[in-house]
Amino acid sequence: MSDTNKALRPATQLAQLPPRFPGESAQYREARNALLAEEIELRRHIERVAAQRRALPPGGVVPQDYRFEGEHGPVTLTQMFGKHDTLVTYNWMYGPKRERSCPMCTSTLGALNGEMADILQRVAFAVIARSPVERLLAFREERGWRHLPVYSSGGNSFNREYAGEDPDGDDVPAFNVFTRADGVLRHFWGAEMGAESADPGQDPRGAPDIMPLWTVLDMTPGGRGADWYPQLEYDTAPGTPGGAAGSCCCD
Fold first, then answer.
1. What fold characterizes domain 67-190?
2. Are 157 and 67 in contact (CB under 8 A)?
């Protein structure tokens, strides 16, 4: 155990500190404090995992300077970095065989769009899909995504090599992080959790997952339930009863 961890106050002790809420019973507070101790430990574990990720040794050298089609013409992977030394990419499930964008990807990208101006202060970001760039830009406009840089990878092998996509098969979502130092591009980290590593009865996802949809619903008494998957459109306005059930990203 590190010196930092030795200095930490026990989570069970910290769980006694917050103020109480009106009307709660002693039974509720006892259970809530037990849960709070676990939440504190979870936060600490997330910090440990993040530190372990940052300490990864150098990843593989990128085999080629992939060429993409962007909003303003051709762009290479190197050029996507802009002024930064780190580039985050998201493989968007909106390939040429897909009639509409994956609802799960759409929900994720909508959330990222809201924070993209802040993210771009620290790192470069690219949303990549195999459809023609004009199609990607039209959907971006439809959804009102003002801040997401989108690129078409239809003319290269990037999706196959960094998302495991079969060129003739289905789209695959993927997060990847690349670094640039002394003119060398390296793959730093890629999301590798999926259906094959999911526990029985659990939805496959990263840890922590970046989607507010997961996080907010998991804080509620009903949790996510069985019909939480997002849709591209709903029959009623947000927050009103009677909305249509969600559909998974593969629908």
1. Glutaredoxin (3.40.30)
2. no
